[in-house]
């Protein structure tokens, strides 16, 4: 009976134990499942972390590669910049070397003056002008090179120039002098050129010693004075000769003519020939004196210039030459609208009278003379032509015909003194122009006149 109870107890105990085991197994299983789930969640998190870490590493590798490429590109750019910088530095050094060489070898003296008026650079030429060494100029005030009496004014002028810098000559319309180191003064010509720098405007001065030029100008002035005196004496001589000699010539011609007419007895044939020689020679001398006087008066008895219409003037000239035109049966053709000129009316009339008279004098005996006068102009000059169909001459003599007393033909064939074209050239030269000739023997001659519309100095005053 007790064994049976024990057995039931054991069974209950066993069942309870089994139930406990089952419960414990269930609990353990649940806990294992929980743990497994936790491990799974943990594993998923770790996998997510790994993936994020891998993505981060991939992004880092991509950024690193991109940065490396950028660094390589930047390195290449820096290398190129460095190479260009080296080239520019080399070019700058070469340019500086060339500029220094040019500065030093310049034919003029060169100075560089800073804003404070101190000399920062000088070449050997300027040192030789001021009779010193280059080193003695560097750092000195530029006013030390100015004569004492002008230094205060130079400071003011330099300040004004720096306020309104411009490329120009120094001391316009007045003489400049520099003070040498030995105390002497030297005449100078100075050109100023401002250079704008970060530290302020510096002045580059080109200095020229004009001592020789001044001496030459002084010599020229003395020679001009002597020449003017000589010209006045020649003009006075021409005036005296033309007036004082005319009266004896007039008497010679008059009395010789009376003798030829037989008022005081008859000449034999030989006497008539000799008296004719006397009259002809006296008449040529009279004509020569008249031409000499006209030649000297081109400048000594000149009239002021004024605007002159050539067509009416040429009509007056043809009236003066009417008898010669009719005798030669000449055809004078004048352009309808010749340009106006700025000229001396009396001398222009004399010029055309001489030229047209020459065309009629040296006409071809086998055809009627035709004289054509034409003209044109541009902005600066008036061009005139006097063309004929006369006997002409060899072009080799085109310059000689304007010489004083120059004749291409003998006195027996053509009268005259050889002064006409010389007077023409002197008139044209007085007007600041030129006259040239083109000719061909047996065809004719063309006189070409070129006159400026405006002259720098009006010699007609």
Properties at a glance:
six-stranded antiparallel β-sheet, five-stranded mixed β-sheet, disordered C terminus, 55% helix, 461 residues, 4 domains, alpha+beta
Task: Please explain how this structure is put together.
This protein folds into 4 domains: 1-97; 109-209, Beta-Lactamase (2-Layer Sandwich), CATH 3.30.450.20; 213-301; 302-461, 2-Layer Sandwich (Heat Shock Protein 90). It is elongated. The chain is of the alpha+beta class and 461 residues long. Helix 6 (246-260) runs antiparallel to helix 7 (269-300). A hairpin with a 2-residue loop joins strand 5 and strand 6. The strands form 3 sheets. Strands 1, 2, 3, 4, 5 and 6 form a 6-stranded antiparallel beta sheet that branches. The model is unreliable at 457-461 (pLDDT under 50). Helix content is 55%, strand content 17%.
Structural class label: alpha+beta
Using the coordinates shown, work out and report the CATH topology of the largest domain.
Heat Shock Protein 90
Q: Which ranges are low-confidence, i.e. pLDDT below 50, for 5 or more consecutive residues?
A: 457-461
Tell me the helix content: 55-70%
Number of domains: 4
The number of distinct β-strands equals 13
The name of the CATH architecture of the largest domain is 2-Layer Sandwich
First and last CA, distance: 180 Å
Task: Give the overall silhouette.
Answer: elongated
Task: Give helix and strand order, one letter per element, not per position.
Answer: HEEHHHEEEEHHHEHHEEHEEHEE
Major sheet: 6 strands, antiparallel
């Amino acid at each position: 009976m007790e064994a049976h109870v024990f057995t039931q107890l054991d069974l209950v105990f066993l069942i309870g134990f089994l139930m406990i085991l089952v419960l414990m197994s269930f609990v353990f299983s649940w806990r294992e499942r929980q743990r497994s789930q936790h491990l799974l969640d943990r594993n998923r998190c770790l996998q997510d972390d790994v993936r994020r870490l891998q993505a981060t590493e991939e992004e880092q590798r991509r950024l690193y590669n991109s940065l490396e490429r950028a660094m390589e590109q930047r390195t290449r750019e820096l290398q190129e910049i460095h190479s260009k910088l080296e080239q520019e530095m080399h070019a700058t050094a070469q340019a500086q070397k060339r500029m220094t060489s040019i500065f030093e070898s310049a034919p003029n003296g060169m100075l560089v003056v800073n804003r404070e008026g101190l000399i920062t650079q000088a070449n050997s030429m300027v040192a030789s002008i001021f009779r010193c060494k280059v080193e003695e100029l560097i750092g000195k005030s530029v006013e030390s090179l100015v004569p004492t009496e002008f230094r205060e004014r130079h400071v003011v002028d330099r300040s004004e120039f720096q306020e309104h810098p411009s490329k120009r000559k120094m001391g316009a319309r007045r003489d400049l002098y520099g003070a040498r180191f030995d105390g002497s003064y030297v005449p100078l010509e100075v050109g100023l050129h401002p250079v704008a720098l970060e530290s302020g405007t510096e002045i580059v001065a080109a200095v020229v010693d004009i001592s020789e030029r001044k001496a030459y100008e002084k010599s020229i002035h003395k020679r001009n004075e002597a020449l003017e005196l000589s010209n006045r004496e020649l003009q006075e001589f021409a005036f005296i000769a033309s007036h004082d000699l005319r009266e004896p010539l007039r008497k010679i011609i008059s009395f010789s003519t009376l003798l030829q007419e037989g008022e005081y007895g008859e000449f034999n044939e030989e006497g008539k020939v000799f008296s004719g020689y006397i009259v002809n020679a006296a008449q040529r001398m009279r004509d020569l004196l008249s031409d000499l006087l006209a030649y000297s008066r081109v400048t000594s008895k000149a009239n002021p210039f004024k605007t002159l219409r050539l067509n009416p003037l040429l009509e007056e000239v043809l009236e003066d030459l009417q008898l010669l035109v009719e005798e030669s049966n000449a055809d004078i053709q004048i352009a309808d609208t010749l340009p106006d000129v700025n000229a001396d009316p009396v001398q222009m009339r004399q010029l055309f009278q001489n030229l047209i008279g020459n065309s009629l004098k040296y006409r071809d005996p086998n055809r009627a003379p035709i004289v054509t006068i034409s003209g044109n102009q541009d902005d600066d000059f008036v061009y005139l032509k006097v063309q004929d169909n006369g006997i002409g001459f060899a072009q080799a003599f085109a310059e000689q015909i304007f010489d004083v007393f120059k004749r291409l033909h003998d006195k027996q064939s053509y009268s005259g003194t050889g002064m006409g074209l010389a007077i023409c050239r002197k008139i044209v030269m007085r007007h600041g122009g030129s006259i040239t000739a083109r000719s061909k023997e047996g065809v004719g001659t063309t006189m070409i006149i070129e006159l400026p519309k405006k002259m720098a100095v009006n010699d007609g005053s």
